[in-house]
Amino acid sequence: MPNHPEIPTAITTLNGTALPFSEIDNIFAQSDLGKILQENIRYEGYKPPHLPKTDWQKILGADINNLAHMPLTRGITRSFLRHQQQEIPFSQENSQILLLAATTHDWAEAIVGDKNGNLKTEADEAKESDVYAQLLKKYLGNLLPSQILNKAHETATNRDSQLGWIFNSIEKIGYLRSGLNAWEIGQKADPDLKKHLHWMASNVIGSQTVPLIRYAETLYPVYQYLDNARFKIIRIFQEMPKNVFDQFPVDDKNERAAQIEKFMDAKKAWYRSLFGPIF
Description:
Elements: E1 10-12, E2 18-20, H1 21-29, H2 32-38, H3 53-60, H4 69-84, H5 92-104, H6 109-112, H7 122-140, H8 146-157, H9 164-186, H10 191-216, H11 220-239, H12 253-272
Antiparallel strand pairs: 1-2
């Protein structure tokens, strides 16, 4: 077998030493902004109103916490890079940039908030991008070369850039992973919680499946992930309750209709893809 380089656990600093990505986690976690993210949760819109945030996190795991989500995204990135080594390995620098983007990509949410991607405007994205650039400079500007920080920023914010489309695929794997997790946990939950978890699963899978199928055509790690998850996804498409979209507020009929259409389009795309059921 080819002797591939180790997946980086650190990044080279201005003075040539190695800065572990875990230390970057600590630098931000100990800041005031890090403490804000520690208190925030993801997918809050799907949480039953009466359920405390802490319970939501206990149910769905650490990835639901805004701060813990970034080290977990780095773990997905490391897995992606390991699978990529079976095809054409990335350079050490590009691997480091992807891992740095994973480690820092949501820092700005401590200031601008965590807004659903479907609801973000161009102005929202521009503001988040500017704040992210400022925070990279604030916390890492005296430690890492500016060109590395700029590339990490571009990777996390511009999906059309050299590494941005790859990082976008990694993020989408993470989203899909959260949706699959919500479905599995919902299968064993009480009826009320089950409705909310299956609503989350339907929306995540409806929005992430089609772009991931496209990424799988050129990115082996994405293909491998979808292939491993294919039977879970088929089962969800087959068993998702028809009334799951009733969780939308009554005054949100347009969004409800859009999500139903998106879910059905994703189901059709999945069944037509290499990952669909064999009849």
